[in-house]
Amino acid sequence: MDRVFLNDLRLRGKHGVNPDERVYEQEFVIDIVAHVDTKTAAASDELTDAVNYVQFSKIAQEVVEQESFYLIERLADTIAKRILEDARITTVEVTVRKPEVLNNGVPGVKVIRERR
What is the pLDDT of residues 54-79, one digit of tens each? Predict the structure, then answer.
């Protein structure tokens, strides 16, 4: 299966279990990988036949900036479910990292969701 991806999307939001994380914005770095058959888009060379990674960016931005979750697992899951609304996508992987949390290392989570 082919993949359409968006890496290193940097957004700011209020997600976390610590009280400060829910008051002050912090940076989230997001990677999205969508498994999709790209043959139709490759043959037609038309954007309407492609899964558009710009849409991934818009979805992630809406979720990160307009909602607030305690866990990044929920944040990643919400983004993944929204992306799977495109029936052409069979599986999506969403990685969310929080680069501002630790002095040494970057924690994160990757969720993999499949169309059922």
Answer: 999 999 999 999 999 999 999 999 99
